[in-house]
Amino acid sequence: MSCASTPASAGRPTRTTRQRWSAAFRHSLLVLAAWEDGELAGLIRAVGDGATIVFIQDILVAPERQRRGIGTALLRALLERFNGVRQIS
C-alpha cells in the first residue's frame, strides 16, 4: 500500500496524487503510520493547532489488515499525544 494507493484501497477517490499526499503530510499537525512486514498497514493524520483543537482528517487501514486493531492503535496513539487538548474530533 503506497501513499498514492492508500485512498483508493480505503474506498476513497483515486485522484489524489503522490505530490498532493506529500504536501498534505508536510502541512499536517501529525501523521502516524503502522507498518507490518515492511508494508504500510495504516495511517492516521491530524490537522489543527495542537493546543486547543485537533481534527482527525484521515484514518486509513489497508482492507486486508482491517479488524485487527491497527486503526484503534493509531487512534489511541494520537489521543495520547494530544491528551491535553480540549477538543478532538
Number of separate helices: 3
Biggest beta-sheet profile: 4 strands, mixed
| Spatial gap, N to C terminus | 26 Å
Overall geometric form: globular
Percent helix among the residues? 25-40%
Structural class: alpha+beta
Tally of DSSP β-strands: 4
Spans with pLDDT under 50 lasting ≥5 residues?
1-8
- Tell me the Rg in angstroms: 13 Å
Report the mean per-residue pLDDT as an integer: 88
Spatial strand order of the main sheet: 1-2-3-4
Succession of helices and strands: HHEEEHE
In percent terms, what proportion of residues is strand?
25-35%
Structure description:
There is one protein chain. With 89 residues, the chain is of the alpha+beta class. The protein contains 3 helices and 4 strands, in the order ααβββαβ. Strand 1 and strand 2 (39-48) form a beta hairpin. Strands 1-2-3-4 form a 4-stranded mixed beta sheet. The chain is globular, with a radius of gyration of 13 Å. Residues 1-8 have low confidence and may be disordered.
Key terms:
alpha+beta, four-stranded mixed β-sheet, 3 helices, disordered N terminus
Outline the secondary-structure elements.
Blueprint: H1 6-9, H2 18-26, E1 30-36, E2 39-48, E3 53-61, H3 70-81, E4 87-88
Parallel strand pairs: 3-4
Antiparallel strand pairs: 1-2, 2-3
Structure at a glance:
This protein is 28% helix and 31% strand.
